[in-house]
């Protein structure tokens, strides 16, 4: 073996993964030995990487997981914790320090139910939301019936945040929607959750299709289909089907309620009510400030982002603007659609009951700038209840101090107090 020690190879492994994350596939592939260059040309490397990582969402954190030595080769595994799953990038180095082997291994995280869940009190049934090309699989969690089988249950449909979320809204080791489904079912409330269209049919979303997509295709259509499916289930009280949205799902919940006024009520968890572009800028500013002082690169990124935010504000009807000129590469069509359906205007016409919940440590949706607007808009309504949980983050998980993205990579559960507030509101309100 060469003089390269494991510390050298750890650094090489992290550099390789960073280059892949930054889409510098040519630079990453240049570290391969001759055999790997033949077996894994740049085009194949890109294809394999995207197939595994695109459905996993945004990166939360990255670090060397373990090292090993076998038959003269050194193996370094780098754990990439994405929003929806963890992926282990296993690299084999030869004696010259070149990469002679590569494996991308999705890491399954075992779910540990929180103490407030009683799995003996409910059952789960697999269902399909919609039909045809965009049908998505889901799970209906149903409380066990009483002995006379005459009981019907209130139902809740869960609507995800942004990105290609699975039915559990898995973020790192956390499964927010499974916590909600199992926690509420333990209290006699049925819950329907499902995989997002952009996850189940990820390969169908070409650049052309994404450029034309709005929140209607991404979220609203399947949410409405799910509500109708739940109403038809024999165990469900069809007049008591509610909709619970988290993050983006919460932001568009009033719009869903507007389209289906028979929904019994809306539960809004961390709902952004301001323009999306403003929230994006606020998030980046917060994240860059965590280290105390911004780097020159971060300052430049923020200045560029401010220009892109201003570009969104100035969008004209039907104007063609490359997504590269807009925040996070989101299309002009998507931003225009959100801007043409302001939540405050929808709320003025919406009479259904609402429960508005917010974490006080949430840096993605502001407990002041957003939650206070919900309060202002709805304070005169006697069928609306608002509650702030000071110690909870965007995932409604308990914590201390400033919230960070790394916090999402630590296993936790939706607070029991949140489950209790929702269940009581459903039964009383």
From TrEMBL:
It holds the Pfam family DUF3887. It comes from the Archaea. GO terms for molecular function: carboxylic ester hydrolase activity. Residues 13-102 form the DUF3887 domain. Gene3D superfamilies: 3.10.450.590, alpha/beta hydrolase (3.40.50.1820). Residues 176-395 form the Serine aminopeptidase S33 domain. This is Alpha/beta fold hydrolase. It comes from Methanobacterium subterraneum. The lineage of its organism: Archaea, Methanobacteriati, Methanobacteriota, Methanomada group, Methanobacteria.
């Amino acid at each position: 073996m060469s003089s390269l020690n494991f510390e050298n190879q750890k650094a090489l492994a992290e550099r390789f993964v960073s280059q892949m994350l930054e889409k510098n596939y040519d630079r990453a592939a240049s570290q391969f030995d001759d055999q790997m260059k033949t077996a894994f040309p740049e085009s194949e490397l890109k294809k394999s990487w995207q197939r595994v990582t695109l459905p996993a969402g945004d990166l939360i954190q990255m670090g060397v997981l373990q090292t090993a030595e076998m038959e003269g080769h050194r193996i370094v595994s780098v754990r990439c914790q994405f929003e929806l799953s963890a992926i282990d990038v296993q690299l084999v180095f030869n004696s010259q320090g070149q990469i002679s082997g590569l494996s991308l291994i999705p890491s399954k995280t075992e779910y540990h139910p929180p103490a407030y869940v009683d799995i003996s009190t409910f059952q789960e049934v697999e269902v399909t939301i919609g039909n045809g090309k965009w049908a998505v699989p889901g799970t209906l969690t149903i409380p066990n019936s009483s002995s006379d089988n005459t009981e019907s249950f209130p139902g809740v449909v869960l609507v995800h945040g942004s990105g290609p979320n699975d039915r559990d809204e898995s973020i790192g080791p956390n499964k927010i929607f499974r916590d909600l489904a199992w926690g509420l079912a333990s209290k006699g409330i049925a819950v329907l959750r499902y995989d997002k269209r952009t996850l189940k049919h990820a390969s169908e979303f070409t650049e052309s299709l994404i450029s034309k997509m709005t929140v209607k295709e991404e979220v609203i259509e399947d949410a409405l289909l799910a509500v109708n499916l739940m109403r038809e289930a024999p165990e469900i009280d069809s007049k008591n089907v509610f909709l619970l949205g988290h993050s983006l799902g919460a932001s568009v919940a009033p719009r869903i309620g507007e389209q289906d006024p028979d929904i019994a009520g809306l539960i809004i968890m961390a709902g952004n009510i301001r323009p999306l572009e403003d929230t994006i800028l606020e998030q980046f500013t917060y994240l860059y400030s965590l280290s105390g002082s911004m780097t020159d690169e971060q300052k430049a990124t923020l200045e560029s982002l401010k220009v892109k935010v201003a570009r969104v504000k100035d969008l004209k009807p039907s104007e063609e603007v490359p997504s590269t000129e807009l925040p996070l590469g989101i299309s002009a069509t998507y931003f225009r659609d959100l801007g043409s359906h302001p939540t405050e205007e929808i709320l003025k016409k919406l009479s259904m009951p609402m429960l508005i919940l917010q974490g006080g440590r949430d840096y993605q949706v502001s407990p002041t700038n957003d939650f206070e607007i919900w309060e202002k808009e709805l304070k005169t309504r006697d069928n609306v209840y608002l509650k702030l949980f000071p110690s909870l983050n965007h995932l409604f998980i308990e914590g201390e101090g400033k919230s960070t993205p790394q916090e999402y990579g630590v296993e936790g559960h939706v607070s029991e107090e949140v489950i209790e507030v929702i269940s009581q509101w459903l039964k009383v309100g």
